[in-house]
Amino acid sequence: MKEQIGALNALYPSLTTLVGAVVNGRENFIAVAHVGILKHSKNPYLTIALAKVHHTNKGIHDHQAFSVCVPSQKMVEITDYCGLVSGKNTDKSQLFDVFYGETSFAPMIKQCPVCMECTVHDVVDLKSHDIFIGEVKRTHVDPAVLDGKDIDITKVQPLLFDMASKKYFSLGEPVADCWSVGKALKKKD
Known about the structure:
Distance between the termini: 29 Å
Helix content: 10-25%
Strand order of the largest sheet: 3-2-6-9-10-5-4
Number of strands: 14
Order of helices and strands: EEEEEHEHEEEEEEHEEH
Oligomer: single chain
CATH superfamily: Electron Transport, Fmn-binding Protein, Chain A
CATH topology: Pnp Oxidase, Chain A
Protein name: NADH-FMN oxidoreductase RutF, flavin reductase (DIM6/NTAB) family
Organism: Desulfobaculum bizertense DSM 18034
InterPro entries: Flavin_Rdtase-like_dom, Flavoredoxin, Split_barrel_FMN-bd
Radius of gyration: 18 Å
Number of helices: 4
Family: Belongs to the flavoredoxin family.
Cofactor: FMN
Shape: globular
């Protein structure tokens, strides 16, 4: 028998990202682990959920653009810092080497192995949070983390965030091949 522990979101660990926006004329970055994939293939979409009190929200609302960068494990200290301090009080524009793609107002971080420039498709307005639905316009990848044309997550070495323990984790070893390991059970049908 399982123990009922209340209404707890138990979808952790989640990918830690650095979301970038231009706020009041200055690049700002915030650590965000509440990200989601809405559509993976052609014309991909993603979501980021930010509490309304965050400084970054203003820039995303104003310019209808943002970036989502995936920091590596070696960036854990500066990534955590970006989640600890607010751009309202701290200039985070000088923390990274910043670059832009074709989407204005979506600053990206050269040190991150993967960055996506996004435009706002829609905003879901919850009482405490803005859920930004972004259309991924272009993805920028460090060639060192590519395996052919695919991103090799073992080379990216992303940070995984766990809310319960308040810790960052690394990836483990692969368990099985997707859309393959279950075929043995399918044959029994």
